[in-house]
Structures are given as C-alpha cells and as structure tokens.
Amino acid sequence: MRPRTFFAFVGPSLVLMILFIAIPLVSVFLQSFWQTQTVFERVEIENCTPGFPAPNCTTQTVTRPLLDESGRTVTETIYVGLDAYRAVVQPEAVAAAFAAGEDFWSRLSNIDFWKALRFTLTFTLITLPLVVGLGLAIALAVNAALRSLRGPIIFVSLLPFIVTPVIGALSIRWLFIGDGILTNALEAMTGTQIFMFAQGWTIEILMLTYRVWHVAPFAFVVFYAGLQTVNQDTLESAVIDGASRFERLRYVVIPHLMPLIVFVSLIHLMDAYRVFEEVIGFSSQAHRISLQFLTYDFLMPDDSGNRSISRASASSMLTMIGIVILLVPLLMRTWRDYKPRG
Amino acid sequence: MKTSHLALAAALSLAAGPALAQGECAFTTDMEIKHLSAAFPAWVAVTDAMKECAPNLVVELDQEFRQKQPTAFAAEPSLYHIGGVANGTLTPLLNDGTIRPLDAYVEQYGQDLSPNQLIRIDGRIMAIAMMVNTQHLMYRTDIFEELGLEVPTTYAEVLEAAEAIRAAGVVEYPIGATMASGWDLAQDFVNMYAGFGGEFFDESGMTLIDSEAGVKALETMKALTEYMDPEFLVSNSTYVQQQFQQGKIAMANLWATRASAMDDAAESQVVGKVGMAPAPLAEAGARPATTIWWDGIVIAANVPDEEAEAAFRLAMEGLSPRTVAEHNDDAVWLVPGYEPGPMATGAIETAMMGPVAYPSSVEMGLLHTAIGNNIADFLTGQESAEQSLADAKDAYTAAAREAGVLQ
C-alpha cells in the first residue's frame, strides 16, 4: 500500500485517537501533578434558617471562597509533585502496616487504594480463566450440536452480552437483595437464613459470577468463529492416528485458537481491571471497591461542591499503569507472533 | 419574533384547554423560564402550580439535581433561572456566587411570605424556603398497642422496645434505618453525633468527630443494627419506606417526606397503622438525634434582570397558599395557610424540640463524604469505633488539604 493511501485510511482514526484519548490523557497526567485550589477566607456572618416558631438566626464563622470583582471565585494552581499520588497510595501507612507485622493485611486493606487494588486484581485474575474456559466450552458444545439447533442456541447464549452492564447488575441485585426471589429459593433449599448483601465475600461472589455470565458470550462468539476455520484434514488424520477427543482438543484445536485466546484475554484484562458497573449495581462500596470506583468517588462533587480532581487524576494514572503491567506478558507474546521471522 | 412567541403561547394554551387556569394567577408570563430541582411530591406540586401561570416554563425534576446544579448555574447565561435547593445544596451555589440576593424582590412581591421562609446569609436573603424536612420516628401503632409499649423518646427506650418486639416475633426486624453506605450512612451518624452534642469542627476547621460523642454515636448505631435486617448497609430511604409498607419493620427514624407514603393504599399494606413521633433523644437529657433541613428556591445570578424578576414572581405563584391548600399533605410547608395533618405531627414536634440545623458548609461536605466512606468498617465489625473515626478524620484532612480549606 502506498503511504498516501495508508494515511488516508488511518488518518481519521488517528485524529480521533489524539483528540479523545491522547489529549485527555496528557491533561489527566498534568492534573495529577498540579492542584487547583479555591482561595478561601474565614468570615463571621449571621445566617437565618427556618425555626419554630420564629426563624433561627445564628452568628458563625464560616469558610467561604474569595470572589473577585466580577463575582468569580479566585483559584490558584500550584505544583505539588507527587503529593496527590502519595495521598492515594499512602506510603507511610503502608510502611506502618509492614512494621506492625502480623495484622499487615487488615491494616493494608484499611487504606482505600490497597483495598481497591486487592479487589480489582482478584476480580480480574479469577474471572479471566473462567471467561475463557466457559466461552470455549460453549463454543465446543454449540459446534458439536445439531446444525438445526445451532441458531437458537447461539441466540440464547448471546443474550447476557446484550444486556447493559449496569442494568444487568441491578437486576441480579434485585433477585438477591432482602427477600429477593432467588434468596428465598436458596433459603428454601438450604433451610438457613441467607443474606447475600450483609458481608463482603458473598457480594464478591455475586460480582464475579455476574461478570463471567455477562462476558462469556463474547469469548464464545470469538472462539466459535475460530472453530469454523480448524483444518478438517488435520482433525481427520488425528482421528486416524487414534487421537482421543481430548487429545484432538489439546493438540489441534487449542493451538489453532491460541491467537484468539490471547485476543480475548487481552480484551478481558483491560475490561475487568476497569471494573466499575458491579460496584454501582450491587452497591458494594461498604465492602468492596474497585480502582475505577475510587477515581469516580474522588471525582464526584459532594453536597458542598468539592471534588478531588488531583487525587482522581493520580488514581486514574495508577489504574492505567496497572493495566499496562498486566498486559505486558500478553503483548510481548503477540509481538513475538507478528514479528517478521528472519 | 415576539408575535410568534405569543402565537405559540396562545396555541399551547388552546391545546391544553381548561387545565391552564390562568385566571387564578396573580402573575403570568410567556417568557421561557427554566427550573431545576429534586423530584419529590412537593416539587411536583409547586412546579405544576407555576406551569399554570407560565405556559413556556421548562421544568426539570431530577433526584440527582445536585450533580449538575452548580455547573449549570455557573454557565453564562445560566442554564436555569429557578433552582430548587436544600440547605446542603445551597452551599456550592452560594460559594460560587451564582445565585442572586432576593431582598428587592421580596420587598416588592413577597407579601405572602412568612419571615420563616427567608433564608438570610450574611444579612441578605439568598433563598426562599418552602418546607422543612427532618428524620423522625415512625412506628407501627398496632404493634406498640398490642404489646403495651410506650412510644420511645430516647434511643435506650428504642432498644428496649426493639427487644420486646423481637421477643414477640411480630415482624421480621424491629428496626429499619437509612444506613446505605455513603451519604445515607454519614447522615445517620451526623444525626446521632449532633444528638450527643458533638461539635463537628474546631476553629481552625479541623474535625472533632474522633471524640467521646463520636464513639457514643457509633456505638448507639451499632446497638441498633442488632435489630435490623443484616443488609442495612444497602438500605436507603426508599428501601426503608418499602420495608415499612410491606410490614417488615416496626419502627424507623425516617425522612418526613416519606410519611405520606405510609398511608398510600396503592403501595402500603399498613395504611393507618403507622404513627408519627418526634425523633428520639440520643440519650436522656440530650438533643434529639436528628437534623433539620429545609427545601426552597434560589434565582440564578447569570440571567437577565427581567427574566430573573419574572422567575421570582413565578416562583411566588408556585409557593402560594393556593398550592399548599391543594397539596396540604405533600410536605411540612412553611408557606402560610398550611394546616399540619396527622402525618406531619412527628416532624413538627421534632422541630419544636430544637435539633440542630444541618450545618452545611464547605468543610461539612468534605466531612460527610469522609464519614460515609469510613464508618461502615466499624458497623461490620472489622475495626474499632476509635479506628474508624480516626480513618474518617484522616480522609477528611487529606480532602480538606487538597481543597485548600486546611493549611
């Protein structure tokens, strides 16, 4: 392809990438080192609020932003270096936890960032094999099913993938919360009282299960497409050589699907590390939070309109670094596969 | 331009027919005025009344209004003329200087307002309140009568009553509470802490919640959770309301705005069985463990003066005694002409006992978040009360430093 044609094709996508990914990323990167603060003054003022029977007037000292002549708040931006990162990661508290010895883990998980990292990593690494395994299993099952049944089976297996993640999580939550029908069913079966939302580990299981249920269809579709291109001659010769069903899977099918498995793993790692919908959907924040939720929590204004932009930026940079570290092994593999062989 | 607007207004009023009873309006306008507020029944009543007097009124009722209000009001021109606020959500607008003083308008058009409705900040009227809201005790009168229980006035009595109700086994859980982690949980703590007489900040803006009152507040909350649905950390106001309506709980310290839902025959299985009582005292001789809130309107600063004036006069139509007469039981109105119904007694008696008004400020916003994110660990038994208060204090300090409130 001539370079001109190449750029004509790639150009629009490059421009959009720069506009919507690269520039925001640079801005977030910068904001994690700078802090914009409102300049406050402390003044004594009298406020009146409704009281019974007469209005309630009190004089109090309040902190309020300084306004300039045109009525805008005065802000100042200062360079704070790694302060925002320090405020998120809290290295001193980690060192103190190390020094404390035995209850290291409980002390570490008392710090939001480490608590979120722990959950995010468990979530990502446990769902990964389950999604790949379940996707492959469905694909093999569908591939072995009668041709006339395949259409309906594919349709049904794809359904979870179509559901909007937050909506799906909310519906699962309503099935289990309080006296939800599934909790009731479980209680009837086991004969014990069950409270899925009363402790962290049960919520965590729900979240993991939900994600696997939701993403497995994606893996299934990709693997099913891959199965259609397995070389039938190789399979037949394997049969003639006396290879069992498992051996055919192990030595013919899986090697053939390997690039697809790497692809699905890459996508899943990226998605799962940014776990967020489950925290909102299952309102798990009292027990389990994720890194993405931490960023969101910093960014949401409270009632008084305060937002922690610097810490939100720092935490999202850390999330990105985390994803890159997780992806490195898989990316290196892909790189090796596509490198021109000498 | 002007004529086409008029023609449109005429067409609209023809289309809407007799519903537009403009005859009752003391003021009408066909300017395009925009309103943003929460979506509870009182706001629906007020905005419906305003619509009758202004066919071009654009009303946006959104429970998450607090997320967009500060930014929308800071735009030039402001995206809304009228904002519905509570004492908490007033603070960011006030701080950004995006709402205008209303003294001149009140003098000219506010003859129907009672002094209690005028929210004065630093001597100037910045908002007009329309109703008060507070969390107070709601209880099942039938259960209390059957078991011969007195209505509890302190939390010690609440616990005794809960024990008796549990022993009798008449409901699944004796107590319900708005303890969903985050804002609700923090509000529950703020109520209890204020009840124990705790101060939130010292003079320098450092928080004082890691005090004896803080520990007492947390321990009372924990004692109450023993009688609750174990999933209390996901239980928000709507959830508690439903638990009541489905007869699963016998008492709760719940928002006054939820009271009328107890007698809503379409949703509730306990119509006529829920009594309203003042918020219990934190302990004998202390303050009621609750805070007083008000809801009301503000007018944007960044809009042309004539539009702002029209918006204010329109708001007066919405907050008129006529609206209250038609929707008497939708809220505990501050508007003259309000006659408290039986469902409002709890809120009014609570207010008479003089609980603290929710101390909204820049620092309080930060502290509220810090509390909501940290005290759940104590209630789930993962750490001590002192530790979770210390965590909340650290979180507050970090956030306050970043915001520039603390040096």
TrEMBL record, chain A:
One of its GO terms (biological process) is transmembrane transport. Residues 117-332 form the ABC transmembrane type-1 domain. It is a multi-pass membrane protein. It comes from the Bacteria. It is found in: Cell membrane. Keywords: Cell membrane, Membrane, Transmembrane, Transmembrane helix, Transport. Its main location: membrane. GO terms for cellular component: plasma membrane. It holds the Pfam family BPD_transp_1. The chain crosses the membrane at residues 6-30, 116-141, 153-176, 212-230, 251-270, 309-332. InterPro entries: ABC_transporter_permease, MetI-like, MetI-like_sf. The keyword Cell membrane applies. PANTHER family: ABC TRANSPORTER PERMEASE PROTEIN, INNER MEMBRANE ABC TRANSPORTER PERMEASE PROTEIN YCJO. Belongs to the binding-protein-dependent transport system permease family. This is ABC transporter permease. It comes from Salinarimonas ramus. The lineage of its organism: Bacteria, Pseudomonadati, Pseudomonadota, Alphaproteobacteria, Hyphomicrobiales.
UniProtKB/TrEMBL annotation, chain B:
It comes from the Bacteria. InterPro entries: Bact_solute-bd_prot1 (IPR050490), SBP (IPR006059). Residues 1-21 form the signal peptide. Its main location: periplasm. Pfam families: SBP_bac_1. One of its GO terms (cellular component) is periplasmic space. It is found in: Periplasm. Keywords: Periplasm, Signal. Transmembrane segments: none annotated. Belongs to the bacterial solute-binding protein 1 family. This is Sugar ABC transporter substrate-binding protein.
